[in-house]
Design a protein that fits this description.
The protein folds into 2 domains: 34 residues; 29 residues. By secondary structure, the protein is an all-alpha fold. The chain has 2 helices and no strands. The protein is elongated.
């Protein structure tokens, strides 16, 4: 009876783990780009409501800071 003894040294094991991690991350990035292409192709757009709300809040803060600076200058 011959037994097959396989040995993977730590360096080779680390290389195998790195290749698996790179493959997994590459697949994630690839499918994200495919998803973005498909969404762009069909013209589906994200909701702009969140962006406009944040812009309104920034505008209000800017107005308040300008008013405070005018009061300090007077």
């Amino acid at each position: 009876m011959n037994a097959l003894f396989a040995y993977i040294d730590p360096g080779t094991g680390q290389l195998v783990l790195q290749v698996l991690a790179m493959t997994f991350m590459s697949m994630i990035l690839f499918f994200q780009s495919v998803k973005a292409y498909v969404i762009g192709f069909f013209g589906v757009k994200r909701s702009a409501k969140v962006d406009t709300e944040s812009q309104e809040v920034q505008a209000i803060k800017l107005e308040e800071s300008l008013q405070e600076s005018e009061q300090k200058a007077a």
